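Weekly sync, protein design subgroup
Attendees: M.S., D.O., the rotation student, P.L. (late)

Item 1: inverse folding check
M.S. brought a backbone from last month's batch and wanted to see whether the design step gives back something sensible before we order anything. D.O. pointed out we never logged the input encoding, so this time it goes straight into the notes. Structure tokens as presented (147 positions):
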């Protein structure tokens, strides 16, 4: 009986480990704009890497990346906001019609240890029902780190 319990709990832990969140990417983009119209942050348990790019004018707006340290405690807070990765993977994407009327798109990608990145795209300044605080926190981090 004890052996069985140990096997069961070992399996449970293995599953949870495979689903552990390793990084986030959150960005926004506008197709009809001039300049750095695509801005994103990659966040893992030790750093933030910002990205700025233009899809139309690479000569005047070459892609820029900047790296900053990030506290693992702050990363863990983001992980807690996701709660269950299974619940995240059930979100239908895209939500609405991102950037269809030049009003911009936002996206959040979550990467796990099993390397199945799951991304949700939504209309800029809108939210993802059930993940409102995550959306707001990642948006605030984008504004903090992208200059
Ligand atoms: C975060 O990403 C950077 C760049 O890819 C990498 O060097 C670093 O090891 C990563 N940190 C963790 C905790 O995964
Ligand atoms: C690229 O950007 C510069 C500066 O904003 C602008 O003068 C130029 O016309 C742009 N080129 C194209 C192909 O959009
Ligand atoms: C929508 O989001 C964009 C990019 O984050 C921002 O520049 C703009 O001010 C926002 N619009 C509103 C109405 O909040």
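Designed sequence read out in the meeting:
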């Amino acid at each position: 009986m004890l052996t069985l319990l140990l096997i069961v709990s070992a399996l449970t832990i293995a599953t949870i480990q495979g689903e552990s969140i390793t990084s986030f990417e959150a960005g926004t983009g506008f197709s009809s704009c001039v300049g750095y119209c695509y801005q994103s942050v990659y966040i893992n348990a030790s750093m933030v890497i910002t990205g700025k790019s233009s899809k139309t004018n690479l000569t005047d707006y070459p892609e820029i990346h900047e790296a900053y340290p990030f506290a693992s405690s702050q990363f863990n807070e983001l992980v807690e906001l996701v709660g269950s990765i299974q619940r995240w993977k059930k979100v239908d994407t895209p939500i609405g019609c991102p950037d269809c009327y030049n009003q911009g798109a936002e996206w959040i990608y979550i990467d796990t240890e099993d390397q199945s990145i799951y991304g949700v795209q939504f209309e800029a300044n809108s939210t993802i029902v059930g993940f409102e605080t995550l959306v707001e926190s990642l948006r605030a981090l984008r504004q903090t780190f992208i200059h």
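Discussion: The chain has one domain: 14-145. The beta strands are 21-29, 38-44, 47-53, 64-69, 105-112, 118-123.
Action: P.L. to compare against the previous round before Friday.
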